[in-house]
Specification:
Layout: H1 2-22, H2 28-46, H3 48-57, H4 63-116
Protein name: DUF2304 domain-containing protein
Organism: Paenibacillus lycopersici
Transmembrane segments: 6-23, 30-51, 57-80
Length: 121
């Protein structure tokens, strides 16, 4: 029964990801990552007995501990990836803001020259 509930929950999550992708709430760049994550969740829920044996083989005799360990490591990897992406976007925004300020200054200077009737250079 627990396995059935786990499969239903992970299928619901997979459905949410597909829905977010179709409605463009989740960009294609990230959709693949989340689709793979959801598919792995469904696979893990379907293979609970195998996960039990694998965790025991690793020396972890309580399988939910193994699942939480893998999940935490995966979430940390996702956070690092998102932080790198956020840092890159922050740098791009800073550069764009600086370029916009320079162009705005040049445009203001051109308008001032035009108002005075001076030839443009």
């Amino acid at each position: 029964m627990n396995q059935f509930v786990a499969i239903l929950i992970t299928l619901f999550f997979l459905g949410l990801i597909v829905s977010f992708t179709v409605t463009h709430k989740l960009k294609d760049r990230y959709a693949f990552l989340w689709l793979v994550t959801a598919a792995l969740g469904v696979l893990a829920a379907a293979c609970i007995p195998l996960l039990n044996r694998f965790s025991e083989w690793l020396g972890i005799y309580y399988m939910p501990t193994f699942v939480f360990l893998v999940t935490i490591i995966y979430m940390l990897a996702l956070l690092v990836r998102q932080t790198i992406s956020l840092s890159k976007q922050s740098d791009q925004i800073k550069t764009l803001t600086q370029e916009f300020a320079v162009m705005e200054k040049k445009l203001l200077e051109l308008h001032q020259l035009a108002d005075r009737g001076e030839p443009r250079t």
